[in-house]
Amino acid sequence: MTMERYWVVGGDYSCLGFKSLKSGAPEVMGPFETRDAAQEAWRRIAEETRSCATARYSIASEQIVLPN
Predict the structure, then answer these.
(1) Quick check: 4 and 49 in contact, CB under 8 A?
(2) 62 Rama class: left (phi>0) / alpha (psi -120 to 50) / beta
(3) What is the pLDDT of residues 37-50, one digit of tens each?
(4) How far is 22 from 64, CA to CA, in rounded Å?
(5) Which of 10, 33, 49, 65 is the most exposed place for a label (fewest CB within 10 A)?
(6) Long-range contact list for 10-14, CB < 8 A, 24+ apart?
């Protein structure tokens, strides 16, 4: 059986090329059990950083194989 978890990952980048984060490490939020919950968190952080052109966040998923 597999389970899927979701994470919101990103931060403030050093330039508009989005290649390296200013802090060096990404902000990670989660895990979220549903994509809808992750999307709600993503919308919240995206709205908070709306005025920052170098901020970028995305949703990542992780599949976990559970033992039988």
Answers:
(1) no
(2) beta
(3) 999 999 999 999 99
(4) 31
(5) 65
(6) 10/45, 10/55, 10/56, 10/57, 10/58, 11/55, 11/56, 11/57, 12/49, 12/52, 12/54, 12/55, 13/54, 13/55, 13/56, 14/54
Q: What is the pLDDT of residue 21?
A: 95
Long-range residue pairs from 14-19, CB within 8 A, at least 24 positions apart, any chain: 14/54, 15/54, 16/53, 16/54, 18/54, 18/56
Extract the tokens encoding 38: 């992750």
d(CA 18, CA 28): 16
